[in-house]
Amino acid sequence: xxxxxKAPTGQPADLPILGEPARSGMEPEPGQEGKGVIHxxxxxxxEMSIYGDLGNTRTLAARIRRHGYVxxxxxxxxxxxxxxxxxxxxxxxxxxxxxxxxxxxxxVIADRLRTMAADGVxxxxxxxxxxxxxxxxxxxxxxxxxGLGILNVTTRGNEKRMIGPVVLRTEFxxxxxxxxxxxxxxxxxxxLPFGHVVSGLGNNGEDGTxxxxxxxxxxxxxxxxILPANPAFADALIAMAAELATGRPFEPADLDxxxxxxxxxxxxxxLVS
Length: 273
Hints:
This protein has helices at 54-66, 96-118, 128-132, 226-229, 231-246, 258-272, and strands at 37-43, 70-76, 88-91, 123-126, 136-138, 144-146, 153-170, 173-187, 195-199, 209-210, 212-214, 217-220. By secondary structure, the chain is of the alpha/beta class.
């Protein structure tokens, strides 16, 4: 990609990302690579980021820089060429109409995404993109829409929405966020959840699970966006991407996350006490 305000001929223009440098979609000059270059791809930011999920991309790019690496931020739009390199992929939530608009392009890039998932590329898929990474989405009318099958989950549409703040127990510590979805997702046999619900409804409001994880692919219903409030999880994704990009273990900097940590702890106390 070129600068965010431009696009190759025939390709959709990128969306501006608040606070992100205009040239962040470009490779660094020789000698300016820092600890390594990490290619970060946001899938369908126009159609599938209506709940602020583009903030996850902004958070990842900012923290990659603070850790001493250089992010190259790509936005993949329907009908565009998929980036040649991808070390970390994120996707967000959208309305049903948005999911319809990206389905044809997902068919085109499906095998590429499946291969990257199998190769250990970290992915964070929120809400609608989480559902599309599963086996299928079954509409309220009973129509079955096939997914990519990267996560062994199946989602069924409901008339009633699940809305509100959430606290999860995960391997990355307690995670907070906000859910707003009408789909009820059920994990298939052997599928691990992203976390277990302490407060909120989660995948379906019944089994206490939230999201799903297969290898380095994570699906979740948590908006907020999720990563600014949960820096330990953000850094776990960055660590996976850094090792993939450089072939070396992640070399983190000592970051001050006190404000984010205080906000998360206060939300947990408010909801759980």
